[in-house]
Amino acid sequence: MRVHSKAKLLRAILDASIQLGKSFRASDFQKHTGIDRDAVSRKFGSWHDAMIAAGLQPVSSRRSILKSDLLMQAKNLANQLGKDSLTITDWRGRNLCDDGTIRRRFGSWSRFLQEAGLRVGTHRDIPNEALLSELDRLFRLLGKNVSSIDMNSMGKYSSSVYIKRWGSWSAAWACYQDNPQLIRDTSEAASPPIFANAGRFGDIVNIPGLLHAPVNELGVVYLFALASKRLGFVLEAIQASFPDAVAKRKLPGQNTYEQVRIEFEFKSSSFRSHGHDPKGCDLIVCWEHDWKESPVPVLELRRMIKDLKNMEKG
User: Fewest CB within 10 angstroms: 51, 109, 301, 311, which?
Assistant: First the structure.
């Protein structure tokens, strides 16, 4: 089998784009050039990454994502994290598709790990405290009782983990409600006030689109969205799971961009108290930076007020 260098493969992809356009599938490339598409995936990690490296647009259809690409992505990510297994949280926000697609393509997350040659973790490895804490996080995030669907779409674990541990989803939820260490008011959560912080405003900053400074994490998200272009970022996605956003940042003095995984916090120290994994995030964006020993780079918006006030002039 002929071995191609990355440079030659990129040249072949760019040459193919003249006939096939700016976005095409790996199967189309193989038919057009005779080059094995799996050879491209092995060199770049996936067909998706090869298209990105060539400055082209990957085909986003879920059906176009090769199983071999997904398995290669899993192996590469595990190597990057120095782990012999992957959790759903490890995967989210940085790969070709969401974990729901993985379950549909492989039948289950465990089967996906098996086919990638990775260790399959068991629900027995997860402490009860961690499972209940994740229920508490979603309860506070959603302001309502957490369903199994909520857990599967936004949670750190699968609802099946809770069902195996407690026998049913309702029994797991009942255990959460009976836990004396987690203090909550379910009646208020079921019908949250329209403005939980009514009457609370930050200092007047007069930033175009925002009169007052943020007083919570959502305010930080909104301010960053307003200022992202001026700060050199292009937002790709904002999600409920960790990390909060995926963006691209223009490299200084270059016409190229790098991908950045962002976690929004009102104070940078909340990253630590929320139990986030520093390996799963490239940048903390906050209003107040109070965590000087942070292992993750921090962008403190409060220190950029003068620049942000002049956004309309830029």
Answer: 311
